[in-house]
Amino acid sequence: MAKQYFCAHCDAAFTPEQPSSNPRCPKCMRRGAVQPAQEAADAEPMRRWMIIPAILVAVVGIGYAVYRTQAVSVEPEPPLRPLEAAELSAYLARDSIEAGKYAAMFVLPTQVGSLPEAAEAPEAAGAASDALNLRTSRWSLEQALPRPVLTADEVLARLDAAGERERFYPVELATALATKLRGSGTRAMVVEVSEFEGEEAPADPFGMLGYFVVALYDGPGNEASGYLDPWGARHPVVPLAPRVLRDTEVIGAALGIEALRVFTKSGDGSVALPIIEDALELDPVSPSLRVVHATILVESGGLPQALQELDAAEQLRSDGPRQLSTVQLLVAQAGLMKARGDSLGSEAQFFEAKSKVADIIERWPRYARAHLTMATIHLGLDELERARVELEVAQKLNPDAPMLWPVWAQYHLATDDPITATAKMSRAIELDPENWQLRVQAAGMYQRIGEDARARAQADEALRLVAPSRRPKLREYLDDMMGSAPPSPASATPSNLELRDPSLGSPSEKPPAEGDPALILGDPSDLRLRDPDETLKLDLDD
User: Is the bond preceding 365 in cis, omega lying within 30 degrees of 0?
Assistant: First the structure.
């Protein structure tokens, strides 16, 4: 018999569709207040015996309780308006969210003298948005930055102190601008968008970082009078299907990017998973957060749950990034099968993935990541000329994407041009020097072309960058790949890391080690597949 659960937050009783030890309430989408229905019933007699102590406690703290009740009114759903700091803290506390510094995401104690005053007039608000844009540097949005997400105060303080342009996330600039406008008396809200009117390319090309602008409101209604884009400097800007975010949901977006950063940097899903779970608690309908969650779940061995998250993300927003995230699992399985010698099976999988990616490109022809994935598929099918064409398109659309260049390196290795392959891999590392998986790819490439010293240098750097708990398993993998163990940091501790094979899309001189997945989709935060027992079967049409 299916186990029933009760949600104390919204008083809903339900039976999960899928068995789970930590189900999400289908009504309010929260986990923190959910408990088995029987436990909730069993607790009732105990509650009777606790009445007297509870009364005493209530009497002792009644003054404070009355004050809190009067000061902060917590509704079942946070209101869609700017929240005071005390309100925001109350909602975070109610849902048991450990937001850390992000609880002050909209607090602005810093006096920013160099930024134009954001008055209520629309032209003044636009000037403030332009000022933010002019002092920041655009980038490809293909990977997380090597630092935590900044609050509004941190963004503006950094701009005041910076001598040159810096990179910021769209959510950081949108939050900073909204906070500045609020301080000047303008009602401003952060808005998530996926596409702008007249633009074909998705605004968040990677599908995990998200893209955010600011909505302005002239009156008390919920109809925005205009939108400002401080990251892209589009004025006027007309987003298609904009999603106005509650302040709590903005904090969820920040936590989601932080989870992705932690996971990308260290490969440690155990640290990143609680962060993304808190983010989803704040914003369960965010497509970007769902893809981040799926990415971490796949690496952590939760493939069925990851597939559910990807399906949910695509239902929430059926665009290129969401569709491609699912297709990449199919590409991953094809690479796994090819590495294990199943040429017929891998070919069938590659062709199926090829058809799906072609549909994505037809709808979003300027989506660089889709062209890069298609190039990877062509390499897997030994269609080198077609791979080159797709790589050229991807490079034209997004030349600053770090993961473009390893695929170029794979192409040049396949065409017997190791010198050019080396140059392309060097470009990738130049763009993303803290990426340990890029270093592993570089070590594998140098090892295959006989440059053992450079291979060992890259292997040593990968060991330095990866999380300490992952180093022993990584060292074992590198030892098997190169024939002898590279130097390992003294701080290494046991781990269960399973690493992607950096040879997908190029010929391999030896089969992968037992239990090692054969995947490389290019990006360190792409979905990764683990199947050491060779039991995984995917049917993405179901």
Answer: no
* Tokens read off for 421: 């392959």
Query: Which has more confidence, 113 or 142?
Result: 142
Strand pairing report for 12-14 and 243-244: unpaired
For residue range 223-275, list pLDDT tens digits in order.
899 999 999 887 778 888 899 999 999 999 999 999 999 988 887 888 899 99
The answer to whether the CB of 206 falls within 8 A of the CB of 287 is no
**Nearest alpha carbon to residue 115 among 166, 180, 164, 179:** 180
CA geometry: angle 342, 345, 347, nearest 5 deg: 105
The sheet that has 243-244: what strands, in order across it? 226-228, 211-217, 187-193, 243-244
Q: What is the pTM assigned to this prediction?
A: 0.72
Find out whether 181 and 244 touch, Cβ atoms under 8 Å: no
- How far, CA to CA in Å, does 532 sit from each of 53, 471, 515? 55, 19, 4
What's the average model confidence in pLDDT over 54-72? 44
Buried b / exposed e over 120-146, threshold 16 CB at 10 Å, is eeeebbbbbbbbbbebbeeebbbbbbe
| Choice between 512 and 464, residue whose per-residue pLDDT is larger | 464
Domain 319-542, second-level architecture: Alpha Horseshoe (1.25)
| Cα gap 66→59, rounded to integer Å | 11
Q: Where are the domains of the chain?
A: 1-71, 81-316, 319-542
How would you class 48 by CB atoms within 10 Å of its CB: exposed for 0-12, middle for 13-18, buried for 19 or more? exposed
DSSP 25: P
Residue type at 477 in one-letter notation? Y
What is the rounded CA–CA span in Å between residue 307 and residue 287? Answer: 13
- In this structure, how many other beta carbons lie within 10 angstroms of the beta carbon of residue 384? 14
Residue length of the chain: 542
Three-class secondary structure of residue 48 per DSSP: helix
Dihedral of alpha carbons 351, 354, 358, 360, sign: positive
Please, are residues 212 and 108 in contact by the beta-carbon 8 Å criterion? no
Q: What pLDDT score was predicted for residue 53?
A: 47
Tell how strand 136-137 and strand 166-167 pair up.
parallel
Give 297-321 pLDDT, tens digit per residue: 887 777 888 889 999 998 998 888 8
380-416 pLDDT, tens digit each: 999 999 999 999 999 998 898 888 999 999 999 999 9
d(CA 179, CA 106): 6
* Torsion 319-322-324-327 (CA) sign: negative
Using CA atoms, how far apart are residues 71 and 79, in angstroms rounded to an integer? 16
* Distance between CA atoms of residues 300 and 437, nearest Å: 16
In sequence order, what are the beta bridge partners of 34? 7
Task: Give the dihedral of Cα atoms 297, 303, 306, 308; nearest 10 deg.
Answer: -150
Q: Which residues contact 57 (CB under 8 A, 6 or more apart)?
A: none
